[in-house]
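Memo to structure team: turn this sequence into structure tokens by end of day. - J.P.
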Amino acid sequence: MPTRTKSRSTQVPAKIGRPTKYSDEWAEAFCREISQGHSVAEICERREQPSQQSIYTWLRENEHFLERYARAREALGGPPDVRHEADFSAALQSCGRSRRGRSRQCL
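Reply from structure team:
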């Protein structure tokens, strides 16, 4: 009797979790709101927007989005807005250790 060999599946495994809300169009609209003086917290309070945690994750993981965000913040000009400084502080607080004890990469 011939021996059987297992063949690898050619199917791509399904992604787990919700689909991302991130897109270039979304990032452009988000950064436009930042440049108009809205804080991350204000924007994320809206029902159709992602959580602040998602925003800061995307800023850490997506260099292009980080550059857009930085340009939007610079477009405000003048002294730093306390609301934006609070956003940045929140991002730094989310760094460190995750609930599972793994190290997180900071901004």
